[in-house]
Amino acid sequence: MTLLERLSVASHEMTLAERFFASVQVALMGIGIVFAALFMLFLIIKVLEKGVAQSDVGAKKKKDQEVASVPAQATADTKEEAAPEEDAAQDTQEQEQLVAVITAAVAASLHTSTHNIVVRNIVRTNDTAPAWNRLGRIQQINRQLH
To answer: What confidence tens digit (pLDDT) does each residue in 71-123 have?
Structure first.
């Protein structure tokens, strides 16, 4: 009968040293099982991270192809080019709308009026968050909207 079997059946007949060694064996076995489970979770997360990253790259390529094909189809269909002044006016209007939206969002989060806020500069920052972080944010926003 092994030490662990004796611990489960007749621990009162074991000496103090035998109980101690059996307890150490149980503790080491538990630590080993936990370590193995954590390592398996690590591997699963790495595989899923690569899958999400590949789907992000595939979606981005598809989006780039659609964006590239839409202007080509539009110019082929209409055979007219927009004047540069119209494009500049449209960009200016879009930027003004963006500033207005950002100002309203900041005012709402600060619980103040938009008259108290002046937006001087808007700078886009790079998103360095991992794919799982971005996915979590998107899911939270979708849950709040529905």
So the answer is: 555 554 454 555 667 778 888 888 888 888 888 888 888 888 888 888 888 88
**How far is Cα 132 from Cα 107, in angstroms, rounded to an integer?**
30
**Upper half-sphere CA count for residue 45 (Cβ side, 13 Å):** 10
DSSP string, 72-112: HHHHHHH-----HHHHHHHHHHHHHHHHHHHHHHHHHHHTS
Q: How many domains does the chain have?
A: 2
Contact 5, 25 (CB under 8 A): no
Burial grade of 110 (CB within 10 A; 0-12, 13-18, 19 or more): exposed
* Assigned token pair, 8: 């489960």
d(CA 77, CA 69): 12
* Together in a domain, 102 and 49: no
User: Does residue 75 share a domain with residue 131?
Assistant: no
